Amino acid sequence: MTRPSVVIVGAGPRGTGLVERIAANAAELYGDRPLDLHLVDPHPPGGGRIWRHDQSPLLWMNSLAEDVTMFTDETVRQEGPVRPGPSLAAWARAVRDGGIRVAPGLAADLAALGPQDFAARRLQSAYLSWVYERSVAALPPRIAVHEHRRTAVRLAGARDGRQQVWLAGCPTPLVADLVVLTLGHLESTPPPEQRALTAFAARHGLTHLPPAFTADSDLTALRPGEPVLVRGFGLAFVDLMVLLTEGRGGTYTTGAGGELTYRPSGREPVLHVGSRRGVPYHSKIGYELPGERPPLPRFFGPAQLDALLARPGGIDFERDIRPLIDKELGFAHYHRLFTAHPERTRVNWPDFEEKYAAADPGSAALQALVGASVPDPADRLDLAALDHPLAGVRYRDADALQDGLRRYIEADLARRHDPAHSPDLAVFHALLSVYGQLIRIGDRGPWWHGFFSYLASGPPGPRLRQLLALSRAGVVRFLGADTTVTADERRGVFRAESASVPGASVEARALVEARLPEPTVARTRDALLRGLHTEGAASTAAGLLAVAAADGRILDRAGRPHPRRFALGPHTDARSGGAFARPRTNAPAFRQNDATARALLTFLRDRTPPSAGPRPASPVPAAVRTAPTPEDSHAADQ
């Protein structure tokens, strides 16, 4: 009898997390039945493309080592069993102590890493590889894993039959009962505006780098000393900043007062950076939250979502969801302010809480309540001001803007490392709680993801200190808010302007779009995903693949879930904020992985007799690796 099989396309952190959940649930749901798991990815399993070892050692993770885990805990609301495991920090400590062995070459990174440090991405790659090997080893003996270092290019098969997954360079497909797409972050074809800028650059001998993963970009065309316009002030910019400064031989020195000074190598371009907000993402918060935490969720939890989902006519994000988010974030902020810093309030918490609960978000009654109860405006939560910090701010010239932005960044660093402002950390926890709820409603539009990233997923504090040093050295120049770039055909240059310095402009022969490609199925460069969309898989208004919230089954345009095809990750409308997570946060990705793993095993169990398939005379090898062929070396990434 043919052995049941599952093909998982994409063996990075999301695919690894799914394997871990299959291993955790197999004994309960699948018993001693045989199963072949095929993992398809041109990059090594565990880290995949984004977290591969082969990238600059200068690039860091964006989270503290103690805030990174691939393992479930008792906070995760899932049906499957908890299988605890170490965070990145605990894993590194175990490696140093000799309890865990890893490949050589990481001794320096391991020795320098503490719980409150930001690990090099290459170290995270080793952690993810270890998690993968551990997860494979935890599978029952009759479940075999087959690794295919190739790219999946096509998926075919009837709804009620076995599926065929075609791999680049292979004459015959993999045949599977079920297929799961854990594709991770993908490249996409630039939209018309970007294509027009690329064509303009080609006509005039300029350089235009459209949205891409910075670690994969060819930056050699950005020449020393020349101005480069950069649109985007998030994490893609931070990577660009690092690779074009330290990556080109520049160094930092620390003065007596702790201030960094940048020593240029002479090989750096001059980066003129701007964005819609005109400021970098907020620094990571550098302290813990002692004492009572806000009881979340309060105003945006399962009960509120149940009521919204039961409404006829669907949900409008701005009308129905955003007011509840605002109220949830405000509740977390004021709960922390009143309970941890009562000297900065005029009333007691129970009285405030009662009136806050009764007031509508954004209403005059709510504003009056906050104004009467919280005397210092700096202690009041103003989400609009947070989202647009330079709105209405004008500088007399570009030099004044540089001074103003440096003061803004210095103030942000000071605030995000001062426990006196601990309501900020309470809001961070509320943002995580909101994200966990939003996966139930699918596509959330462009505002939420950007706002979440700006407040909750900013760079490590040391990176912003480096940015200040680069600004003082003249290697980075700030453009301001509402930055626009135009293509000047007459002069043959790119020109940037902003609302922050009216009338001023900067010209350059190079433009870098420092942001990730849009996760759109209509323009994705991934042939398999593009083929699914062409053949009828549903997508949202934002271009994300539509999936069932319960288990990740891919939906068609009639809203029907495919019985044999699943998808997890940022290319779906169930985006969960990352394949790994902070411990003890009921991480959405872990819940999704568990639900999908249980759906896979249940489907296969109901179609596989307990004694089906030959029992091997010796244990099945944990993983059978299929080596890549030359034609795979340039294939699209999973």
Automatic annotation (TrEMBL):
Specify the superkingdom.
Bacteria
Q: Matching Pfam families, A to Z? A: NAD_binding_9
Q: Which residues form the FAD-dependent urate hydroxylase HpyO/Asp monooxygenase CreE-like FAD/NAD(P)-binding domain?
A: 7-185
Q: Where is this region: Disordered?
A: 561-585, 605-638
Skewed-composition ranges (Low complexity): 620-630
Name it: FAD/NAD(P)-binding protein
